[in-house]
Every structure is written in C-alpha cells, then in structure tokens.
Design brief:
The chain is an alpha+beta fold and 670 residues long. It has 27 helices and 13 strands. Strand 11 (566-567) and strand 12 (570-571) form a beta hairpin. The longest helix has 23 residues, at 375-397. It starts with a strand and ends in a 19-residue tail after the last helix.
C-alpha cells in the first residue's frame, strides 16, 4: 500500500488561510479548491493568492500544493529539506569511512567511526562472541549495587557507577557554568530516572505502567516474578512522593534555564539536607576535591524530598532503582542472561549509523564540517554577521524609548558579542581514544559515557572556556544565541540549501540565513537576554528600570498583536511566542535596512518567506500552538512582513486588503 498521502487543496486552504481572524490577515474563506484525493489541478486556487491577501501563500502556495507527507515525515518544508540533506550527508560520510581500507591513525575520528561501525554490525548480527564478556560486565554492575548495605554504601555505589560505568542512577550531578559568575563552573543537581514523574502523579494507569516497566527490569536481573512486582511497587511509592514535590513546569520545559538555576552554598544547602550531606552530593558526582562549595539545584523541593528518602528504610528501593536504570538503559544490548526485550527492529547498518551519531557526535561533526563547510560560506556568513551587528548599533541608537544609559548597556553587549560560525578547529588526535571502542556495543557505550563524565569533571575548578562551538555539534541544523557566553552559534549544517544557497545574490542570502542570524542577535536584547550583561553574567537589575518598563510596553503591544491571529480556529499564544516573535521582527527589520533599495528588499522579503515554508498536519499544528514558543510558519511570515512600510510600498498593499495592518497597530522591535 502506498504510504504517501497527498495534502489536498482543501487542507492547504486550511493551512494557509486560517492564519488570522476575519478582521485580520488572510481570512480568505471564500476561496474554493479541488478536494479530490488525486491531487487535482490547483493552479486556479494558487492563482488567487496575492501579496495583498496572503503573502505566505503567494510565495509558497504552489510548492506546498505539490508536497507529500510520508511515513518518514511529520512535516515538510525548508527545514525538513535541509534535515534530509544533512542526514544523507552524514550517512554517506559514515559509509565512506566504514568501507575505507585506509589504516587510520589510532584515536582519529576516522578510526573510531570505522571501528564502531564494524563492531556494531558484527555484534548485532551475531558475528562476535560477546555474550560471556557482556555478562561479566552486567554481573559486575549488579554486584556493585548489591554491595550497598546502608546509606554510606549507597553513596559509594552511586559514585562507583558514575565513574566506572558512566551511569546516573540517583541524581545527575554535573558541571555547568555559573550564570552569576561566568568565570566559574559549578555543579548542577537534577532528577535522574527512567520513570516519568508526571505520569505516575497524574493517573493510576501511569503508576501501574511504571510499576510494570520497573518489574520487568528487576525480573531481567533475576528477581522472582512476585517479588519483582512488590519491589517495583515500593519504587513507585517513593517516586510518587518525589513527584508530589516536583515542579512539573520544569519537566515540561515551560521554565527557562534561569528558573532552574537555584544556586546554594554548601552551608545553605546543608540547612535543607537530610539523609545525605552536601559533601555526599559532590562525592556522588565523581569529583575528588573539596574546592567546590556551590551547587545549583534545578528543583529544590524535589531534591530535598529525594535526599530525605535516602535512609535505612529505603536502601533496597534505591538499589532496585539503580538496577532498573541499568536494565532499561542497556535493554537492546544486554547479554542473553539478562535480555528481556527483543533486539531493535532495524538493520545492523542503521543501528551502527545511529550509534555513531549518538556516541561519536563530536568526531562525526568534525568530519562533517571538514567535508561540507566551505571557506566561501564562512566569508559570506561572516560578512552578514558584520552587517547585522553594524545595523543593530543603528537600531539601538535610534530607539527613542531607550535612555542613554540603556543604550550604552545594550551596545556594550553588542561590542563583546562573538559569532561562532560553522565549526571549531578539529581537536588534536589522542591515540588513547582508540580504547573507547570496546569488545561489544555494551562495553563501548559504557566507555564513551564514562569518558564523557570524566571530561566534564575535569572542568571543575577551571575557568570555563566559553567556546560557543561546544554548545552544538556542526551537523546540528540550528543557530542560537547563548546568554552566558554572549555569543551566536551558527552551525555548519544550517549553511545548506535551501537555507543558504551557494552563489545566490546577497539580498537573497540576507532574506534566508541573514534573517535567522538577525533573529538570534535579537535574543541578546529580549526579555531574557537583557538580564545578562556583556560578560554573560546574570544581572537582572543591570538595565535601568525605566528602560525595562519601556520594553515591557513594547512587549505588551506585541502580545496583543499576535493574540489576534488564529490557526485552525485556535489563537496564537502571544505571550508564549513573545521572544521569538520579536526576534523575527527584529531580524527582518535588519534585513530590510541592509538591503539596497526596493528591488533588493523585494528579493529579501521573498526569500524570507521561503525559509518558513512548512506543511504540517492539522493535529500537529494544533498541538504546536499550545507547546511551541515559535509561531506557526504562516504567522512567522504574514504577521511579520505586515509590520514594515517597505512591504506595503513594494507590493502596493493598501487599506482594505487582508494583509493590511493600520500603521498605529504595527509592531517594531526598535
């Protein structure tokens, strides 16, 4: 059966034209379209779209009509096209490296990828006799867990699993940059467990499902059936207590990293600790020194509840949870003695590629950048960054709502802002890294995870490098602004067509990747970004209060503006999407200012609309309205371009047209 489904003209009408209420943009419900499943001839319908009634549809309608969603894609569009291209590029790199007969240097990116590929294929296909060795590994982990007889034993067990096996079975206690002093790293403590706390708190069904999941893990470790169920129930009771003291907005991502950076000194945290001490937390992390006396707690009430349950009555519970973490985490690669689930339903080639992308992310990223990121791309994007930065100086200086002190605060940030474009220089090959590849998939996973933790621990006590390249791999399709680093990271992967087109005229490139870069710079000055100074330190009162209040009025106007738009009968959440909406407006404002005259501005506008061309099923579109901090693609185009005088002048849009917004209602970031 054909798994492809064609999006009919009726569906397109819903996606394109339901962008706004009847008194706003794009309410063109009077249009008719062929609704046949054969795709039909929709040229007549597309021909009715104009810049004056639906700019997004005018630019993208024909291509959207021809798009098809299949089993692989939950959406289609510009970003999906880049994603498919990058995925193909990565697969080709892996295949080429794996098939090479070159004797690669030990520890090199190529050697690790080559060897992990063949190890995975041979292990998964049963060509290697790894069962006895893997059984010995799991036996050793379980023996380490069972050796814990009291609270002190739990602390030793947790530390040992972290250092020797790269496993967090209680809390993740990992280094992070100190938001209040970016010259230091501190520890951050957060919940770690295979069980979703929200599901067990919200319903009996969720609690039963969690119990059954945990019981399966315990049975795999050799616990008799009935006993496994009883012990799994005890785990769920403890987790239910923790869930009752958990801020679910953190788990759902509704709170920012600022909200979860709750810094405590050793003395402050000790006042709230029972069961184990502040020193125990640091010890569990694997850190060997006592110099670190600060720790950030993502969810304080949750942590205090967790540690209160570390007592003699719960030793068995914590040991059993550790067993479950091991069994659940390695379920696909367990030896026969412990296997309780089927092997992954995939080919060994696909599994090998996925493991390389996961375990050797850094190594693969370096090869990717060397192959696909060119010097010409670097030159063009560097020029765009320079032009954008120069225009932001103009925008800040011309913002009459800012005081001189406020302007200086923002320009100081701009002065120190750095751009990390493409990829960092490849790391120096260390022959010892060849040891990361073990005798089986299981052993390799453990070695890589443990090695990663040791590298993280080595940063404690050191001045953070603050290398923006470290935040995203080169083959990640993204660009972002990082407040603690005061930098913009533009990855090599996002410099692919159709986001970046080789040899395109500059105005077209401005409209595409230039608008994205301008968008990211804007985040340095949004409601979150202004809380960080030029050195990346969190200083919420550093910007003058009068300027903060003036910016709040601009934000209120933007919220009201975006609240008016609807998609599929549901309103856009102007508050949820505020920062991204203002960044879209700010980025395009820069683009139009840099473009030289109406013709280049027209080219930039058309290419901006192309960037956000997206086809999304109705159900996904409705869900994203509630969860996504970005506005729907249609709104990211129509609602943005309608704010600029240049749009009206270039396309002759006038009062009474669906795309028309009265001048006093148009939103500008600056």
């Amino acid at each position: 059966m054909d798994s492809t489904k064609r999006i009919t003209a009726a569906a397109l009408a819903c996606l394109l034209l339901a962008g706004c209420s009847a008194e706003d943009l794009g309410a063109l419900t009077g249009y008719t379209a062929d609704t046949g499943d054969d795709g039909g001839d929709h040229t007549g319908y597309v021909g009715t779209l104009t810049p004056a009634n639906d700019y997004y549809g005018y630019i993208n309608g024909k291509e959207l009509m021809e798009m098809e969603l299949d089993a692989k894609h939950s959406s289609m569009g510009t970003m999906d096209e880049v994603a498919d291209l990058v995925d193909d590029q990565l697969d080709a790199l892996i295949t080429e490296t794996a098939n090479s007969e070159v004797d690669f240097p030990k520890g090199s990116n190529e050697q690790l990828i080559h060897d992990l590929y063949h190890l995975t294929k041979d292990d998964f296909d049963g060509e290697l006799d790894t069962d006895a060795a893997d059984t010995q590994v799991i036996d050793g982990i379980l023996e380490r867990i069972e050796a814990a007889q009291d609270v002190d034993g739990l602390v030793e067990m947790w530390r040992g699993l972290t250092l020797d096996y790269g496993l967090y079975t209680f809390l993740t206690v990992t280094p992070t940059i100190d938001l209040c002093d970016t010259t230091e790293n501190v520890f951050q403590a957060a919940y770690s467990s295979p069980v979703d706390l929200e599901s067990i708190r919200e319903s009996d069904f969720g609690a039963v499902a969690a119990r059954d999941q945990l019981a399966d893990c315990l049975r795999a470790a050799g616990v008799p059936y009935k006993e496994a169920t009883d012990r799994a129930t005890d785990i769920v009771y403890a987790l239910y207590e923790i869930a009752g003291h958990t801020d679910m907005e953190i788990l759902s991502g509704e709170k920012t990293y600022i909200d979860t950076f709750n810094l405590y000194t050793a003395e402050e945290l000790s006042d709230h600790m029972s069961g184990i001490s502040f020193e125990d937390l640091i010890y569990i992390s694997g850190h060997s020194g006592d110099a670190q006396q600060k720790i950030s707690v993502s969810d304080p009430d949750q942590l205090f509840t967790m540690v209160s349950l570390v007592d003699e009555d719960h030793v068995r519970v914590w040991k059993d949870l550790a067993i479950c973490v091991v069994m659940d985490g390695y379920s696909e690669f367990l030896p026969d003695k412990y296997r309780y689930s089927q092997k992954a339903d995939t080919s060994s080639d696909e599994l090998a590629k996925e493991l390389i992308k996961s375990l050797l992310d850094k190594q693969l990223g370096e090869l990717y950048a060397q192959r696909y990121y060119t010097e010409e791309k670097r030159k063009v994007i560097t020029q765009i960054c320079d032009d954008m930065k120069a225009e932001y100086y103009v925008l800040i200086d011309g913002a009459d709502w800012l005081s001189d002190e406020g302007k200086k605060y923002l320009t100081d940030k701009l002065d120190k802002m750095k751009f990390y474009i493409g990829a960092d220089e490849p790391h120096e090959t260390d022959p010892k890294d060849a040891d990361l590849i073990g005798g089986s998939i299981l052993q390799t996973c453990i070695r890589v995870q443990a090695g990663s933790i040791l590298r993280q621990l080595s940063t404690i006590g050191e001045v953070p490098e603050r290398n923006g390249f470290d935040t995203m791999a080169p083959h990640t399709i993204n660009a972002c602004y990082l407040s603690p680093y005061n930098c913009v990271n533009i990855t090599a992967a996002i410099t692919n067509a159709p986001i970046y087109i080789d040899d395109a005229e500059y105005a077209a490139t401005l409209g595409r990747i230039g608008s994205i870069i301008g968008h990211e710079i804007s985040h340095a000055f949004d409601s979150e970004g202004v809380l960080f100074d030029a050195d990346g330190n969190y200083r919420p009162d550093a910007m003058p209060e009068a300027d903060r209040l003036a910016f709040e009025k601009k934000q209120e106007q933007a919220i009201k503006y975006y609240d008016r738009f609807t998609v599929l009968g549901s309103h856009v959440n102007g508050k949820l999407t505020l920062a991204e909406n203002l960044a879209d407006i700010s980025g395009l404002q820069c683009v139009l200012a840099i473009a030289d005259g109406p013709e280049e501005q027209k080219t930039a506008l058309e290419n901006y609309a192309k960037v956000w061309m997206t086809l999304t099923p109705d159900t996904d579109a409705k869900m994203l309205l509630e969860l996504d901090e970005h506005s729907p693609a249609l709104v990211r185009v129509n609602a943005v371009v309608a704010n600029f005088d240049e749009f009206y002048e270039i396309y002759g849009v006038k009062e009474g047209d669906p795309m028309y917004i009265a001048p006093e209602e148009r939103v500008r970031r600056w």
